[in-house]
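Subject: design request, 124 residues
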């Protein structure tokens, strides 16, 4: 949940229709207000660092970068890649993530999604 909200904040998105965001949280195994235990969802690395969960987060970053989270947005208002990386900065954009994003700069949604799905953002 924290990752999903961090991604939306990073690109300045505020979807009008949150149903897709709620569906994403359910796919992640964290439906809003439906945790099965009183201690809340696990926030340990072991709970979220697995191939299936990482794939879902990468797909989420791609959907957000392509404007598919909120269908009312014909063109997603993506921040410039350099601005996004500068605003996130520090450990949130690792050197390897920066390198890959810049190599794919011609495809803006892909480059932005690489930053948003990078290992640094998983720890935000």
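Subject: RE: design request

Done. Sequence follows.
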């Amino acid at each position: 949940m924290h990752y999903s909200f961090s991604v939306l904040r990073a690109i300045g998105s505020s979807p009008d229709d949150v149903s897709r965001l709620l569906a994403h949280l359910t796919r992640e195994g964290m439906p809003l207000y439906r945790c099965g235990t009183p201690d809340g969802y696990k926030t340990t690395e072991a709970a979220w660092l697995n191939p299936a969960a990482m794939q879902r987060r990468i797909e989420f970053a791609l959907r957000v970068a392509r404007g598919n989270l909120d269908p009312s947005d014909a063109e997603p208002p993506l921040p410039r890649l350099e601005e996004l990386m500068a605003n996130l900065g520090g450990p949130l954009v690792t050197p390897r993530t920066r390198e890959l994003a810049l190599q794919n700069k011609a495809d803006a949604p892909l480059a932005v999604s690489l930053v948003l799905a990078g290992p640094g953002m998983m720890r935000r």
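The chain is about 55% helix and 0% strand.
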